[in-house]
Every structure is written in structure tokens, then in C-alpha cells.
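Listing 4. Sequential folding, example run.
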Amino acid sequence: MINFDKDFFVGFVGGTIVGATGYKLYEDNASDLKRFVKNPSLKHSAKTSAEPTLEELITQKENLEDMIAEKELAEKEKKVAVK
């Protein structure tokens, strides 16, 4: 059997209050939320294409090459410091 102690009841009451408050706020602002979600200007800010452009790919490639060069340099410096 579950042991219902003071902490359980405090958590239950607190969760109920937070849930009721959230529901009330949602109901009060439902029209604003629906308008925010259906706003066409927000759809344009997100990418519609899953494929990156050639420019984005080249930028990513350059960033990766820079990171590889930094790692190689760090490893060479470690080897020199050990000797």
C-alpha cells in the first residue's frame, strides 16, 4: 500500500494549483496563442528545405577543417611537451 505522508499531499496540492493556474491562463489567452501559432510570418522564419545550400555546406566544411587543424596542432604540441 502506498504511504501517503505530508510531502505527498504538499506536492499533490502544489501540482494541482499549478495545473489549474496554467489551464486558466491558457483559457484566458487561447485566442492569442492560436493567432501566434497560425501567424504566417513565423512560417517563413523557419527553413522549409531540409537540404542545406552549397554555401552552407562550404562554410561547414571550412569550420570542420579549422577544427581538425586545431586538434592536430594541439596533439603535436602535447608530443613536443612530453619529449
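-- end of first protein; second protein begins --
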Amino acid sequence: MIGELRNWRLIPSKAKIALSLDLLCWALTVIAAITAASALFFKVKGFPEYAIILGEITAVLALGIVATVFTGLFWLYRNIHR
């Protein structure tokens, strides 16, 4: 994937959209993992109010991941069946 980013101008526009959705999904996954780990840490340390807030943020990020995946699948279906 990094090699593809080096030649960004040479990538067709449809592939740029797919690559951008892929990178967005990876970024959301990493951020969701970090917030979930932080929520677990605060729950173990005895700060349930912080754990609840971070858990809600993790849930919103998980919804963003699902939305990104379905957007990518819809985009792929629409472009294949033209």
C-alpha cells in the first residue's frame, strides 16, 4: 500500500477512491482500538465515568468503520455493474 501512495498521480481516480476508503477504515480501526484499550484501563483503575465516555466514543468509531465498509462495498457494486 505504501508503494501505491508514492505514485499517487499515476493511480486512476476510481482506485484513489477505493484506496482512500481503505486508509480511512484502517485509521478508524486504530483509533477505535486505542479508545477501547483506554476505556478498559480506566475501568480497571476505578474511573467508571471515563470508561463510559470512552466506550461511547469507541461505539461511534465502530459505527464509522461499518459505514466506511458499506460505502466501499456500495461503491464497488455500483462501479462493477455499469
